[in-house]
Design brief:
Elements lengths: L2 H17 L3 H12 L1 H7 L9 H8 L6 H35 L9 H8 L6 H11 L1
Helix pairs in contact: 1-4, 1-5, 2-5, 5-7
Length: 135
């Protein structure tokens, strides 16, 4: 596992949390479970947030178990997929968000709810993206 992969995990997690998907919490729980031994042994005193746990994993990458490495790989893959979905959504709905939901605080699905509540005013591309993302 290299530094870029660990950075991508953190960056994608930030994007995913900002989008408000519940699955991001599941991914974090899986990493905590799959890397519990490493967290306990090498990263116990790390204050969570701002990529510090990822930095700890990187600092001890030569000591990570196969299970932890696999868990981190799976988390990175899932978060990358979520980031692709978010990028698609932003590309298709960015102007609709600015026009229809500019005063809505991002996170916890509020922007998606705002757009969905104004379905008749949405652009065709945004309407399709919402269908694609929510199905």
């Amino acid at each position: 596992m290299n530094r870029t992969t660990l950075f991508n995990i953190c960056a994608a997690a930030c994007v995913t949390f900002a989008f408000g998907t519940a699955s991001a919490q599941d991914i974090v729980a899986e990493v905590q479970k799959g890397c519990a031994t490493e967290i306990e042994q090498y990263c116990q005193g790390v204050t969570l947030g701002e990529g510090r746990l990822a930095a700890c994993f990187y600092a001890h990458e030569d000591k990570l178990s196969n299970q932890c490495q696999y868990t981190l790989y799976e988390a990175a893959s899932q978060l990358e997929a979520a980031a692709v979905v978010l990028d698609y959504f932003v590309q298709q709905c960015g102007s609709d968000v600015v026009k229809l939901c500019k005063d809505v605080e991002a996170g916890e699905g509020r922007i998606l709810a705002c757009l969905s509540s104004q379905s008749t005013a949405l652009s065709a591309s945004c309407s399709q993206a919402i269908t694609d993302v929510t199905e």
